[in-house]
Amino acid sequence: MSLLPWTVYLSLAGALLALAGGLRSPGTARWMALLTAAGTWVLTLLAASRFVPGPGLQTLVDIPWIPTMGVRYHLAADGISLTLLVLTGLAATAGVLFSWNIEERTGEFFALFLTLVAGVYGVFLSADALVFFIFYEVAIVPKYFLIANWGSTNREYGAMKLALYSFAGSSMVLAGLLWAYAVGGGHGFGFADLAQAAAGLSRHQQIAIFGLVFFGFATLAGIFPLHTWAPTGHVAAPTAASMMLAGVVMKLGAYGCLRVALPLSPVGFAYWQAPIAWLAVIGIVYAGLVALMQEDLKFVIGYSSVSHMGFVLLGIAAANLQAASGAVLQMFSHGVIAGLLFAVVGRMVYDRTHTRKLADLRAMPLYRLLPFAAAVFVVAGVASMGLPGFSGFPAELTILIGAWKRDPAWAAVAAVGVLVAAAFTLRAIQLSFFGSTDKAQPPGHASTGEDALHFEPITGAEKIGALLLIGATVLIGLRPDLLLDWINPALQSPLFQAALKAGTP
Amino acid sequence: MNPDYSGLFAALLPETALVLGALVVLGLDLSAFRRRNPGERLQLALGVATLAVLAAGVSVWFGPAGPVFGGVLILDPLAVATRLGVLVLTLLTLGVAPGGTAPRHPAEYVAVMLFAATGLMLMAAAQQLLLVFLALELASLSLYVIAGFDHTRPESAEAALKYFLFGGMAAAFLLFGFSLIYGVTGSIELPRIAAQIALQGADPLLLVALVMVLVAFGFKVAAAPFHLWAPDVYQGAPASSAALIASASKLAGFTLFTRLLWPGFRAAAGSVASLTAAPGWLPVVAVISASSLLLGNFAALAQSNLRRLLAYSAIAHAGALLLGVMAFGRAGPAPLFYYASTYGLATVGAFGVITAMESVGRCEYIADLAGLHRRSPLLAACLAVFILSLAGIPPLAGFFGKFAVFSAALQLGGVAAPAGWLTILAIALSTVALYYYLIVLKQALVAAPAADARPIKVPRVAALTLVAAAVLIVWFGLFPSQLLGLF
After folding, report:
1. Given B373, B400, B411, which is nearest A186 (Cβ)?
2. With a threshold of 0.90, does the pTM exceed it?
3. B446, A149: Cβ pair inside 8 Å?
4. Residue extents of the structural domains in chain B
5. Distance (Å, rounded) from C-alpha B200 to C-alpha B185?
6. I need a labelling partner for A262 at 20 to 30 A (CA). Which of A357, B179, B355, B408 fits?
7. How crowded is the C-beta side of B60, counted as CA atoms within 13 Å?
């Protein structure tokens, strides 16, 4: 456990090494990045193997940082953060593997990528709201440059929109946290300190403060109607960045909602619970329907991410043990599956065909040309639909059961979302990989015949990355208790219990 | 009063060092180095000036503390910290200067910079209205001169004239305000003025005087609506002059006026903790702060000129710094000083990068930064640190400045008070600010260089200075207590 803070330091050191390695050769930078990412993942797995689940955060580092303001550099972990730390390690490692073909400014790419990873690790480890916030912001800036520099399709617009939405959300969070801090007399940013300070406010003020912090974080989790940055950002991002964005960074928002916003003010939560839940289910269905209409394969995945994140938010809003643990499980599950989907679309397909238009892809017999990609995409799609045997199934099921207990209407509408998800996933699989069953030619290559449609084979790095992610989703699909045994005790901590109690009528 | 000249001399040793340095610079340039080429003369002048600044720094560090010469000067922690801050910022300005093209009279340029620094040092410690005015004028006159030092460009002359005219007007207001204060309280020494006001309360004439002082304050720190000189000066002045005007002058200005307002006129402060409080200067400062925040951030969005963008961002920062001034009465100088000094570091750095770029051609528009990452990776990396610090991205120092000031302002009366609204406004506008800062960084780090762009070779001293500024920003960001704990 005590090794966990080193995930942050190691990632930052790796970023510098990758930058330096990039000066020598792109290959050096790649290997540096891979070793770093894999190293941090091993650290999280080591910590997981020795983890003893229990309620409350287990402190790893706790030293005064800004004594005059009561800020402590306090890192800690519990079952929830551990789940997400393992996910981060996995997504980072897979992300590096799927970026093996980056040739332009390789060192800088991996340096930014690893800085992003360090920020994400830091957020999941923080037990002081200001430290949390700082790592959260550290993760924002690299995203902008990753997308603006190495992205595709309207990348500067997508990058700026994403950065501004994230920053606007974090400004709301900062305002709320500072408010609570000031009310508390400036004693500190510990979660319990803030909650205690906020409890002294009037009901209206508590409602306002909870709204600021929750919706600030929920912006990054893609809550409807603040989700519009997500599809454009994900589509514009290079593969590794979209994997990281959809897979992990959106979880930062959801994690912030769960870790910081909920305990901050149970009174505020009780007021906002129903609106949040409805926004979440609207997001599930709406984003699903929009995904159904997309002509660009990456946009389908982008909107599907918003839809799946709606389940996480629904689980948080429903606020009982089942729904909340389901929400964390769904964070893990979606992190893996979204990473897989973006990897197939961005790396395996787009880098080879140079098109993501469903109409164009439909004209190519991709299942024959890229059989491995087709297989991975089908598996990922099936997992994304939430079929039993994959991680999406236990996650969404527990969320739906939990939501049903709180309000059957939420669960009913969300269940419609599951159907929609099946529809858009099947449509995407059908159109992209199995559109053309005969010797059809892509538009513009009318007379060149099949020879022109020879793509470079899927590389070993891609295969390893895909297998890692598939392995994870299957493992958790078959043994969800592996994670639930970590998550459930963590939800027994007094802070969470107070919030969950407030959300139960 | 028994005049204590030896104490005065000890306290003014740093200023003496600076003035001596300036004289040595001028003397050497007129004698031994008269026939050398301008580049060498600049090198020599900068070298001597650096020694003078270092000597001044040492004498501040080991200098006396407490009131000096019967309270004409006060060397409290804020004064000492500001004096050191001014010296560090001056040193950085001198360090980045060799990157640019040498001015026609290099020694005079450097000497006038040292005179400006002398004025700024006095501003940091002055506690008597007469000395306040003298220090302010010494600094201002020197800065007018270096703003107009580029003889080759009419914009530089325009900048100097504009700066001078606005500055002269502001000085007139200040002097009139001071004379009213003297008339009302019968003293020019801040402690006595404070005692007198506390005794007789805030009378209307005093409030008029205070408004006049605030006009000069607004001018000095470029706060709206007294900001009109800033964009033109930032645009027209030589980059290293602009660096000094934007950083050290601001830091000293905030210290000087905060010292006037809080210890001096605390009794006439009024309140920003509720809307219905007594009248005073705090509500006026709040209005100036709000207008600076709004005008600075929104006008910066429309800029295509990099220097003007920095000017409007400076106006926005002045608005946020004024929040620190409002919170001074409760939270003390730490947040304000932290913000002002780290802001100065970032601004000197940004202008230093501009200076370095000007060695290969004018750096005027944001688009001129295109491809900086390929033309000079070092400059691009430093610029990223400076701009992100200005944008307030942790863990850089700019974030903690904002954080400290905002949390201090929120503790004035909670969110529901005017100070709280201003804080929320400032936090919301930081998102707007991120947009224009990212536009700058996009050109520098993402865009491809223009076809005819050459690599930029940064002189070693300038490179070292820029790296030092960037390291300081990161250092104070990672260890904010180093500055916050000074007071």
Report:
1. B411
2. yes
3. yes
4. 5-484
5. 9
6. B408
7. 30
